[in-house]
Amino acid sequence: MRSSAQVVICGAGIAGISVAHELARNHGMRRVVLVDERPPLTLTSDKSSEAYRNWWPGPDDAMIRLMNRSIDLLEDLARESNNRFLLNRRGYLWCTANPIQAEDYLDRLPKPYVDGGYYTKTRENRPLACPLPVEGAFVHGALSGFGLMASMGTAEVAAAHITGGALPDWAPAFDLARYDDPEYLARLEDWGDDGQL
Q: Is pTM, for the whole model, over 0.85?
């Protein structure tokens, strides 16, 4: 018996896995294939702290709305799975006014290393979840170090594009077509903060 995939996803990082999950669970696709030369979630996706935030600079609220939606979906998944993936609200703040304590803390931190992975990002540090200019091809990426936080929300948008489903009103902020808009390009010139913390 010969079988075929409904969707082939290139990359088994957090972006690929989250789209596969969305398509299988919420869109009924049973023949989703993930293709990657490495084991799932091993290049940059496994470096996450499992912490998250919903504060994002920018001239509009698209990132905040995306992150709020994504966090809602993550918290639902954490509840359903008995928090199997250890989502937490620890956030990003590490501080002390004691220099000796700070030195001790810094000595205990894991040492950074380069494993061949890197984060891709757009100029304004907004993800992409949209069709490509090739029929049947889509992109879900440029999650730039906030993949865990954004993955469920952007996967929902990517899956809606793939299946022809309804898109949230903020979805155009994550479409390549934004770069065809002269007004948007002018806003980019004055954007200022790139959103990277």
A: no
Sorted by sequence, the CB contacts under 8 Å of residue 145 that are 6+ apart come out as: 119, 121, 196
Classified as helix, coil or strand, 77 is: helix
Looking at the DSSP bridge assignments, the partners of residue 32 are 7
Q: List, in order of start, the domains of the chain with CATH numbers.
A: 7-180 (3.50.50.60)
What pLDDT, in 10s, does the model give residues 106-134? 776 666 555 555 567 788 888 999 999 99
H or E segment to which residue 163 belongs: helix 147-163
Rounded to whole angstroms, the Cα distance separating 183 from 192 reads 16
- Beta strand 138-141 with 32-35 is unpaired
Nearest to 144 by CA among 174, 108, 181, 165: 174
The answer to whether the beta carbons of residues 180 and 133 sit under 8 Å apart is no
How far is residue 133's CA from residue 175's CA, in Å, rounded to a whole number?
A: 11
> Which structure tokens are listed for 7?
């969707």
What digits encode the pLDDT tens for the residues 38-84?
888 887 665 665 566 777 767 788 988 998 999 899 899 989 999 88
Task: Inform me whether the pLDDT recorded for 194 exceeds 70.
Answer: no
